[in-house]
Structures are given as C-alpha cells and as structure tokens.
Amino acid sequence: QVHLVESGGGLVQAGGSLRLSCAASGSIFSINAMAWYRQAPGKQRELVARITNTGSTNYADSVKGRFAISRDNAKNTAYLQMNSLKPDDTAVYFCNANVHNGQYLGSYWGQGTQVTVSS
Predict the structure, then answer these.
(1) What is the DSSP string of 50-118?
(2) Of 15, 23, 98, 108, which sits with the fewest C-beta atoms within 10 Å of its C-beta?
(3) Mean pLDDT across the stretch 91-112?
(4) Of 9, 61, 4, whose CA–CA distance to 33 is shortest?
(5) Burial classification of residue 94, based on how many CB atoms lie within 10 Å of its CB (0-12 exposed, 13-18 middle, 19 or more buried)
(6) Collapsed DSSP state (helix, strand, coil) of residue 7
(7) pLDDT-derived band of residue 20, with 50, 70 and 90 as boundaries?
(8) What is the dihedral of CA 53, 67, 44, 9, to 10 degrees?
(9) How far apart are CA 64 and CA 67, in angstroms?
(10) Residue 71 has what pLDDT?
(11) CB atoms within 10 A of CB 71
C-alpha cells in the first residue's frame, strides 16, 4: 500500500505565496512521475504541474512563470511552490504519483489540500 499526504494549503491574499508538499510512504520501490492537480468547485480536475524522476517538468499554461514543481527523491516528496497567487487558483490541490512497489506500477492520489486565494 502507498500513501500520499499533502500539506501546506491555506488561505492567502492575492499576490501571496504558498508551498505545498506531498510525501509518499509505504511499499515504494521507485517513483516515476509525480504531479499536482487541482479541482475548483463545479470544475473538472486539471493538471497543474508534473515532474518526472529525472526532473523534467511541464506546467499548465495558467501557472507557467508563477508555479514551480520540484522533488526530493531521497524523501519521496514533491513540492509545489506557488507565487503571485490569484483568486482563480482557489481549488483543492491533489498530489498524484506513479509508484512501482517492486511488482507493479500503480497510480496513487492524496486526499487533497485546500488553497484559497482572496482578492
């Protein structure tokens, strides 16, 4: 079993910053890509940023230049640094990881962390 735990969400004013963390634990042999998604009320879940195990990244157009994804492979942890936050960034942010447990590759999700940006 693999568990992902997000932290770092909260309430911030527009223009502010937050740093989200996603720690993976459990039966982990290796972690391939890790990603952050978000889901705003009434909207579909969307990809925010993704990072491979070699450090390649890609971002949603709406966050390019403001958000930065990184990871610490030794800690099985991914981060999302969010700067210049806008009210439109308000959503529940979910961590996703593709984890190999030595037998098979599975996709796992965290429980989500709320980010609220006030205007």
Answers:
(1) EE-TT--EEE-GGGTTTEEEEEEGGGTEEEEEE-S--GGG-EEEEEEEEEE-SS-EEEEE---EEEEEE
(2) 15
(3) 95
(4) 4
(5) buried
(6) strand
(7) very high
(8) 100
(9) 6
(10) 97
(11) 21
What token pair was written down for 97?
A: 């990881």
Provide the greatest CA pair distance for the chain: 48
DSSP string, 17-47: -EEEEEEEEES-SEEEEEEEEEE-TTS--EE
Residue entry with tokens 């999700």: 109
Single-letter amino acid code for the residue at 111: Q
Tokens of 54: 């070699």
Residue with tokens 């890609």: 58
Between CA 8 and CA 6 the distance in angstroms is: 7
Nearest-angstrom CA–CA distance, 68 and 81: 5
Q: Give CB contacts under 8 A, 24+ apart, made by 47-52.
A: 48/80, 48/93, 49/80, 51/78
